[in-house]
Each structure stands twice: as structure tokens, then as C-alpha cells.
Amino acid sequence: MIRINENYLKLKASYLFADISRRVTAFQQANPDKKIIRLGIGDVTEPLPEAVVAAFHKGVDEMADAGTFRGYGPEQGYDFLRDLIAKEDFQSRGADISGDEIFVSDGAKCDTGNIQELFAGDIRIAIPDPVYPVYVDTNVMAGRTGQNVDGRYEGLVYLDGTRENGFIPELPGEPVDLIYLCYPNNPTGATITRPQLKAWVDYARENKALILFDAAYEAFVRDPELPRSIYEIEGAREVAIEFRSLSKTAGFTGTRLAFTVVPKTCMAYDSQGGAHSLHAMWNRRHTTKFNGVSYPVQRAAAAVYSPEGKAQSRALVDHYLNNAAIIRKEMTALGYDCVGGENSPYVWIDGKMGSWDFFDMLLSKAAVVCTPGAGFGSCGEGYIRISAFNSLANVQEAMERLRAVLK
Amino acid sequence: MIRINENYLKLKASYLFADISRRVTAFQQANPDKKIIRLGIGDVTEPLPEAVVAAFHKGVDEMADAGTFRGYGPEQGYDFLRDLIAKEDFQSRGADISGDEIFVSDGAKCDTGNIQELFAGDIRIAIPDPVYPVYVDTNVMAGRTGQNVDGRYEGLVYLDGTRENGFIPELPGEPVDLIYLCYPNNPTGATITRPQLKAWVDYARENKALILFDAAYEAFVRDPELPRSIYEIEGAREVAIEFRSLSKTAGFTGTRLAFTVVPKTCMAYDSQGGAHSLHAMWNRRHTTKFNGVSYPVQRAAAAVYSPEGKAQSRALVDHYLNNAAIIRKEMTALGYDCVGGENSPYVWIDGKMGSWDFFDMLLSKAAVVCTPGAGFGSCGEGYIRISAFNSLANVQEAMERLRAVLK
């Protein structure tokens, strides 16, 4: 008899975006004339940069000619892209990362979800709260947790993000082996300073722990004092894997390209204490279960790093950062405490009432969709996330409506 | 201390293609003037169909305009593609599959590798030999096997493919829960008849087993008596998941699009005997760990199903089938027993000596690269695989050279 992986039965159904969708649909049906403005999901709205589009077309044309056609490429990505990423995203910032430490993939969601396969089943895992649900769910599926009790899984070490710590959790009070960090943070928009990040790297080095650093929003960092990569911190090459994506950097949410950095100096251990290269293990996983990213998409991605592509991508991010600044300014003026909205596309707002109550109020009175913070973990209760991913006109109109409702 | 998944240590290093590459490189260096013809790896060589290229460009153009731009799409694929696949690949052949049973992905390698996550750790798995290495390796990584002893992993039930059974293994002599089948077969090129496939479906229904049916080469089936989908067999909707790909169908090895069919009637069981929908479980896995295929690639894929796209893709497959027929005819005329090469792009040849000896002979005397059958499992020893994926001129020249060497 074919039996299931019963860990799936522990998963709490992900009601967050389904719930939002249901409530928005009901509201629209009851108010068919109202124009709803969506500042909920973190999806980009602006078209691909021109340089990217031109390179994408060129890549497609190469596939149309027998002389330039490409079949299977290297699973890890073409060298033309890996070397460019290493140079532009890392070496240019003083981070010692080489092209063959870059693993190109079709999404950071896949990579952050799949990486846990490399580790033992009984490691101790530290998970921030609030948090992107993929980190938790993929470990539940793999059997590294117990049951969900009152919104938290048994067996995980939760790192609380609170107003008091500015949503930068303290180091864990008990030993942990694997640590998920995400900065600029989704959902809170909080950023981490170099000294704060160094404390985590030092902790990992002292405890032979590993940090999984999700830097999907690094392009939004404009403050030169803030790190954009964990490899800007001394010693991180030994204890950190970093996840990046072009989704928010260059509008690739529908085009799909991301990459994971696994330094060759990054080790994990067997039960006898023997050290094993995580680069070699991820390479084995990647080549066994993945066949590389679409060639024209890799050409499109390479154009993000051209002089034109860099300027155009920066303009895209500027657009969203401007929206974020408007949201933060308006909400602050209305008397709400905010985190994020600077060096980040997300504004995390203390709603001074239940997350879903605030969500319902904004929807019913202003026809504006946000995301209830409670959907990201119990520390998110009482907060909402407003996303800057929309047109300037829509953000301005949403803020006018909020002013009318909340003033 | 961060500890590794020690199952990775059981993996036999995959020397096959690395070994081939090393020997080919050494030969080329010693014979710089010789033109090597590669009939080894199963990678397509001909450009994308015109209709596909046109749709691909159109999809890219949509991403360049704010009015038509697409961000995150449905993880399972857009309905325009899922419905088309269901209609053209299944309903048109009498297989009762609906669009929402199609999960679009970026590769059959990913899907055949990831599907095992849905199942318990201690199920009994039947694996054909010879076989595509991904089925075995992904189960080794997940801990469903013991050590590798003399080329076979402890704990797996191997289904021997031999000259006597025409490389269609008999039903297992001991109970199994999960069965991997691939027809037309990689590497042997063998095809399965309806009665033969029905015997497997009946076995699965009687034993509450599940069949994972890899149909990546179904487009090469031209004999109307042969099944192209397992869902042409009565009862298969209850006991089979099917994997498809456009890689060989329409030249997508570098473009990347595949799909997995999980019928809603397909169940697996918990330890209490309770039935669970594999459609719901795969949907949970797919939405948690994957973010959908690039939008322009989905548009390109949809064009494969247009009248022009169908004709052009068929012409592509015809081209490779013609090559396969030439290879089979020549090798047969030279006195070699062959399987495949009809309704399949692979010709599986009894070399009448060791696989690697035959490989070395073809390389050194004819500068032709094949794949040693021993690389696909112990039942492959003594055989070689010749692939039809090349230009007609190269195949003809390779056969002339083989004639001179082997006659």
C-alpha cells in the first residue's frame, strides 16, 4: 500500500492569502462600483527594463537558429551569468565570492524551500517570527517539527520580532544549528546593521551553526552603512548561504530567475564530526533535481548587470522606494508607528487593533487591501503590512483614502 | 553543530557522463584533427519551431508594457496552457484528464525527483534496471535505501530489463508500493503495449500501489496501437501519476517546460489506512516550493499546441525518428541486435562485448560518441545507447564510419 509522508498532515492550511482573496471578492461583489487598490501581495507591477527586454528577445532569436540554438545548459547556470553576478553583486562590494559559488535557479522560493534537504532530520532550527511561511512549512514537510500548537510548531526555536527589538531578534537563548534570517525583512521591512549581522555571524562561528540569509530585497538598501550581502561580514563565508532573486530587483516575478550563493568554505558535519562541503552537496542536489534556467531568461538576467540595465533596474527600485516613503510618511502623520519603508518596499504598521480588524476596516471603508500581520506568525498580531508595489497614482489615491478614514 | 543529511554519503558518484567527457576530451587532444560526432547525451539539436519562437517573442513583448505585464502567475501554470494540454494531449486521445489536474513545471527532472517527497520513508520501491538515474538517486537522498553494494542499493526492488523480456520487466515477485515506469524507455528505447501496461495498472489497483509513469518521449510514438499516456488504460486515474515534457517533443531542453498529471482520483494512504488525495498533496508541495514557469515560456509552450506548432513539432520529431531508423537499420545490417529506434529516439544495441570496451572502440576508431549501457544499471552491461539527436548529415556520417569499423 502506497503510504503518504504524514508530516504533510501537520501543516496548517495556509489561509492567509486565500482568506484575503475571499474577503476582497466578497467586498467587490457587494460594491461592484468601488475601485479596489491592492497593496497586499509583494508582487511587482512595472514592466521589465528595456535592456532586459532587448536581451530576452535576442536570446529567443538564438533559439530559432540551428547555429546558435542551445539545448541543455549547465544546471548551475551559464558562466556568462554566474561570473557577472559574482563580480557585480559581490566582488564590487568587497565580498569574496567567485562565479562557481553562484547557483542560478528559477526562484528563491525553490531554493529557500529545497536547501533544508541537505541537513539532518534532527537539527535544531531557529525561525524568526513574523516570517515568510516557506521556511517553516518546508521543515514541517521534512519532519523536523512536531504538531502545530496555538500557531507554533513544536520543536522549532522561534526568534521573536517585537516593537522593543525593532524586529531584529536577539540571539537564541538555547543552542541552535540552523538559523533563517531575512534582511531587508519580509514582512516587516526592518533592516539589519553591520554590527547586528556580525553578532549573528560570530554566533554561528562559535556554535558551528549555519545561517540561511535571504537577501531577496537587498536592491532596496540605499543606506551605504547597511550591508547588502552577508558576505560583507568577516567570517560569513564559513557559516552562511545567501539567497538572491531578480524578482524585486528587476521586475522578474513573472520572468523567474534567482540564485543561491554557497561558498566553498562553508561546511556542515556528519555524526562523527567530519566536515563536508555544502557547495559539493548543493551541487549534487542541484544537478540531480534541476535542469537549469531557460536560456533566454539567463540572457535577460545578464542584461540586468549591463550599464543600461543597472540604471533601469535602479529606476524601477527607486519607483517602489518612493511609494514606500509616501506610505510611511502618511501613516506616521496619521499617528501610526511604522517599521520599514526605508531601504525596503514594505511598511509594517502597528494598527493599534487586531490585524484582521484593521484589514477589514481598510477594505470596507477605503477599498484598500493590505496584509494582516498575524498571517506571518503570532508576533505579527496587531500589525499590518502595506506593500509599495503599485503605481504612484494608486499609492497616492490609497493614501488619500486612508487619510479620510483614519484621520 | 549543523549536521548533514548523511544519506548523501551513500550516493555513488555519478561517473557516467563525467567519464565519457574525460575520455572524449583525451581523444580530441590526442587527435586534434578528428571531427567527433556525438550521439551520446539525449539533447536536441534543432531550433525551436517557428510558431513557438513567434509566441515566445510575443510573451516577452507583453512583459515590456505596463498594460500587459505579468508578475507572479499561478504556481500550477496559467489556465490557458493547462486547459490546452488537457484537451490536446489527453482528452483528444480518450484520456479523461482535466486542466486542473495538470501541474506545469520547468522540468520533468525536477518533477520526477521531487515527487517522492509525498511518500512515507519506508515504502517499498520498484525501480527498473537499466534506468534514468534520477529515480534512484532522489530516493537515496531521501533515505529510502541502504548502502550501494555491487552497483545496487539495498532496500530497492530492481526490475530487470533483459533481452529475454525485451526490456519490459515482469511484475515484481514481492510486494511493492511505488513503481517507476518509463515508456518509450530511456535508455533502451523499448515501448510498452496496451496489454503490458494494463497488467501494471491492474497490479497497482490490486496492491494499492502507485505508478510513476515517465512519458517524456511519448511524442515519438507513431504506432497507433501503442499507448502514449497511461491514462489511455482503464483504471489508471486511480493509481498513476504521469510526467511529460516539451524537451524532446518541441525542442525545449534549453527553454524548459514540463508538466505532471495528478488525477484527483489518485489516492495514497496514511498509517491508519485513511485515503489522502495526491492532487491536494502535490498542490501543497508545488505552491510551497515553486513559483511557476516564466510567463513568456508558457506562451511559447501554448504555441506547441496550435495547428502550426503541432505540424512543426511533429516535423522535428520526424527528423529524429528518421535518424533513429537509419541507426537501427545500419546496426542491424552490421549484425547487431537492437531494441528501440522505432517510436523512440534511442537505439539500444547489444555490443557483444563490455559496454565501455564498445564505447572506447567507437571513439578511438570512428570518433563517434555513444553512451555505455552499464552507466544505467547492471542490466545495461554489454549494451550501448545511440541517440538520434543530431543532424541527418552527422548521423549519416557516423553510420558510414561505423560501417567501416564494424563490418
Automatic annotation (TrEMBL), chains A, B:
Pathway: Amino-acid biosynthesis; L-lysine biosynthesis via DAP pathway; LL-2,6-diaminopimelate from (S)-tetrahydrodipicolinate (aminotransferase route): step 1/1
EC number: 2.6.1.-
Assigned keywords, A-Z: Aminotransferase, Pyridoxal phosphate, Transferase
CDD domains attached to this UniProt entry: AAT_like
GO molecular function: L,L-diaminopimelate aminotransferase activity; pyridoxal phosphate binding
Domain of life: Bacteria
Family from the record: Belongs to the class-I pyridoxal-phosphate-dependent aminotransferase family.
Protein name stated in the entry: Aminotransferase
Taxonomic lineage from the root: Bacteria, Pseudomonadati, Thermodesulfobacteriota, Desulfovibrionia, Desulfovibrionales
